[in-house]
Design brief:
about 180 residues
Length: about 180
């Protein structure tokens, strides 16, 4: 068995794969352009410094989305422990809009810097509400309606995924004529 000082600095460089005692050796084809070095995650403050220019767009978008959610909840209020139609509508429409937005951002607005942070993270992040959805489901269980809570959770998740797919499909359909000219 090799001592740590005798082991190769990179697996597979100076020893044969499968050499007894060398658990670092391997024999796979690796693209030389791919960097396989494991790096530690950057500190959150470093990430914030690198992306600080996005914070105002996300904050303004988040405030806008939260106000829109408040508007929906005001138009269609519900009592605690009852089915939360306004939360369901908010999350499903937000999922649809997120799918639509992502299709357009990836094809039509791929060159823009602030559309996705403002609309996707900010507006739609502030508009949709996973925490309220969970609180509403808990309220249904606490008020003696566990079956209704299960339906609420299932409908929200299943229809939310379908809404994202529908938004993506519509976004791709809308983007097709806009990007067709760019391919020429």
């Amino acid at each position: 068995m090799m001592s740590p000082s005798e082991r190769p600095s990179e697996p597979g460089k100076s020893s044969e794969p499968g050499e007894p005692g060398d658990e670092l050796a391997y024999d796979i084809a690796v693209d030389p352009e791919v960097d396989l070095a494991v790096r530690p995650s950057p500190h959150p403050w470093q990430v914030l410094r690198e992306h600080a220019h996005l914070v105002p767009a996300i904050a303004i978008g988040g405030a806008t989305g939260a106000l829109a959610r408040f508007g929906v909840a005001t138009v269609e209020p519900h009592a605690a422990g009852t089915f939360a139609w306004s939360t369901l509508w908010t999350n499903l429409s937000g999922a649809f809009l997120l799918g639509l937005l992502m299709a357009l951002v990836l094809s039509v607005w791929s060159h823009t810097r602030y559309v996705r942070p403002f609309l996707g993270v900010g507006v739609l992040g502030g508009y949709t509400t996973f925490s309220t959805y969970e609180l509403d489901a808990r309220g249904l269980v606490a008020s003696g309606h566990p079956g209704e809570a299960l339906v609420y959770v299932g409908v929200t998740v299943a229809c939310g995924l379908l809404a994202v797919l529908a938004g993506l499909a519509l976004g791709r359909r809308l983007a097709a004529p806009l990007t067709a000219g760019a391919d020429r």
